[in-house]
Fold this protein.
Amino acid sequence: MPAGILPDNPWNPVTDTPRFDFHCHSLASDGALTPADLVARAAAAGVELLALTDHDTLAGQAEAREAAQQAGIRLLPGIEVSVAWDNRELHIVGLGFDPDHAAISALVESQQQARTRRAERIGAKLDKAAGLANSYRHTIRLSGQTAPGRPWFAKMLVAAGKVRDEQHAFNRFLKPGQSCFVSTPWVTLEDAIAAIRAAGGVAVLAHPTRYNFTRRKLRRCLEQFVAGGGQGLEVLTPGLNNQQQALLAECLRDFPLHASGGSDFHTPKQTWLELGRLPPVPAEMPLVQALMAV
Ligand code: AMP
Ligand code: MN
Ligand code: MN
Ligand code: MN
């Protein structure tokens, strides 16, 4: 596949595949919209096939399913799992699995436990580093979750007047290398893929260009991802440059992987993103839809 095969022309797909979005977030994790509002927004944007992929939780799925029925669009079960690989954190999107399968429940349970412990520790560190009291409790209240992720701590810090904005909170406290970063015992790449596959789903490596991998390292990662049962690579995403597109096209050609796509929409404040607004799908590109009978 030549470079530049994914021109940034979102509303004019090459194939007649239904408009889809397989990566987005709701208030059930770190998104700004309720699952129902997210689904309504997707439908209004012309999305016909949607997966809500909140971080390590299925808490939004039931509400999203109901809203999708009302809006007359199709919803695939989805999740974005934080995993450990080679001493770093990767994100795996699971699609089309049985949400009631024991392997998925166990995966979510163990990730939520890890997230709860991490949130307690982040809260304790922030109390000291930012001169706050009860950071954890405040962030629970703000998020409505017992295991709030880092974006919620960032929002709490903004509300407490300790940082200018959420990005500042990450840069000053929350990102790796900063004083309140807490490394987390995420599930391994292999175990996450195995759980998704056991539940009948497809495992997709999310946003492969966001890990600062060299080409060589990305290929090593994909070898292990495929060996573990991974089947999808998220290549239809907004904002890739020509070089990144060429690299992903090469990976699709060289590995037995199907293409997935998603906006990674979190909030309407990201005005440069919209649900379902993806690069056009090249006619010859194998899509993960083919693996799921959708
Ligand atoms: P968590 O899963 O709790 O570690 O939170 C990860 C989420 O925080 C990601 O999905 C992004 O939405 C957001 N995020 C991660 N890193 C950054 C960063 N450096 N700046 C701003 N947001 C970030
Ligand atoms: Mn997120
Ligand atoms: Mn991610
Ligand atoms: Mn995401």
Summary: The chain has two domains: 20-96+201-291, 118-174. The pocket of manganese (II) ion (ligand 4) is lined by residues 23, 25, 80, 264 (CB under 6 Å).
